[in-house]
């Protein structure tokens, strides 16, 4: 379920996900957009946003080290007077592998809360794979995924907060981006609602043939743990994706 400003409950939830993922031998957990402090909480974006060297990331880095499993998630990032809708990938050793500030801000709430990013989405290594980062609406623009593919990404991680009414993104556009660029796209969404906004769920991992490797329903809280198919001389990697999100305890 969405975080909705419940920071301690969110961290407890990440701890649970890491334990499950690591027990399965996974290398990376993927969570949704603005997991900290919550997506549809513009009242909290500016007041709670933290820099990448702040306590949220320090705590997540330690959790990754302790579990020996990486974490990719979205958060509100503060950089001086500016606030960004950011995704951060942390490796199993606690190293920050990459960060990315969302370029394609969606709707009036995001445009009021955040400054758009101005740097290209990153490509980074995890084991023998090369991963790219996008956030939600970015994946709907073919040029972003194509640019990552040109720069060597064979997996794109996409934290998202896709609302009801936009199910076509998970059903059509994510598989299309994977097929167009001969890579894998992992798209992690919320289910349930947050401050009146209902999310569409339907988290999905799509392969180069546009087929769904694994997916969740609109209302089902689940974790997808997937052994990614081989590509070229890369060995299979394990990706644990929070699909439609397990319930975060109240409190």
Account of the 3D structure:
The chain is α/β, with parallel strands linked by helices and 251 residues long. The protein has six helices and 14 strands. It has helices at residues 7-23, 42-48, 55-67, 107-113, 142-150, 167-181; strands at residues 28-30, 70-79, 82-90, 96-101, 123-126, 129-133, 155-159, 184-188, 191-194, 197-200, 204-206, 212-215, 222-227, 238-243. A six-stranded mixed beta sheet has the order 4-3-2-1-14-13. Strand 7, helix 6 (167-181) and strand 8 (184-188) form a beta-alpha-beta unit. Helix 1 (7-23) packs parallel to helix 3 and helix 5 packs parallel to helix 6. Residues 233-237 and 242-251 have low confidence and may be disordered. This is Carbon-nitrogen hydrolase family protein.
Q: What is the compact description of this entry?
A:
By secondary structure, the protein is of the alpha/beta class. It has 6 helices and 14 strands. Strands 4-3-2-1-14-13 form a 6-stranded mixed beta sheet.
Topology:
Layout: H1 7-23, E1 28-30, H2 42-48, H3 55-67, E2 70-79, E3 82-90, E4 96-101, H4 107-113, E5 123-126, E6 129-133, H5 142-150, E7 155-159, H6 167-181, E8 184-188, E9 191-194, E10 197-200, E11 204-206, E12 212-215, E13 222-227, E14 238-243
Parallel strand pairs: 1-2, 1-14, 6-7, 7-8
Antiparallel strand pairs: 2-3, 3-4, 5-6, 8-11, 9-10, 11-12, 13-14
Helix pairs in contact: 1-3, 5-6
């Amino acid at each position: 379920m969405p975080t909705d400003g419940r920071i301690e409950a969110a961290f407890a939830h990440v701890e649970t996900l890491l334990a499950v993922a690591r027990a399965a031998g996974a290398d990376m957990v993927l969570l949704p957009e603005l997991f900290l402090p919550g997506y549809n909480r513009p009242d909290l974006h500016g007041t709670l946003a933290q820099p990448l060297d702040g306590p949220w990331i320090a705590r997540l880095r330690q959790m990754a080290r302790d579990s020996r499993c990486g974490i990719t998630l979205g958060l509100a990032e503060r950089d001086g007077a500016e606030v960004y809708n950011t995704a951060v990938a942390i490796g199993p050793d606690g190293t920050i592998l990459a960060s990315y500030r969302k370029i394609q801000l969606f709707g009036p709430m995001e445009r009021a809360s955040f400054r758009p990013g101005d740097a290209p989405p990153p490509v980074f290594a995890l084991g023998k794979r090369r991963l790219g980062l996008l956030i939600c609406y970015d994946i709907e623009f073919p040029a972003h995924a194509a640019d990552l593919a040109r720069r060597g990404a064979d997996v794109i991680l996409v934290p998202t907060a896709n609302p009801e009414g936009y199910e076509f993104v998970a059903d059509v556009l994510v598989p299309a981006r994977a097929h167009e660029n001969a890579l894998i796209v992992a798209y992690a969404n919320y289910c349930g609602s947050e401050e009146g906004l209902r999310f569409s769920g339907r988290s999905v991992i799509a392969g180069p043939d546009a087929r769904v490797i694994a997916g969740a329903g609109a209302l089902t809280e689940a974790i997808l743990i997937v052994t990614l198919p081989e590509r070229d001389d890369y060995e299979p990697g394990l990706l644990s994706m929070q699909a439609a999100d397990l319930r975060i305890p109240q409190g």
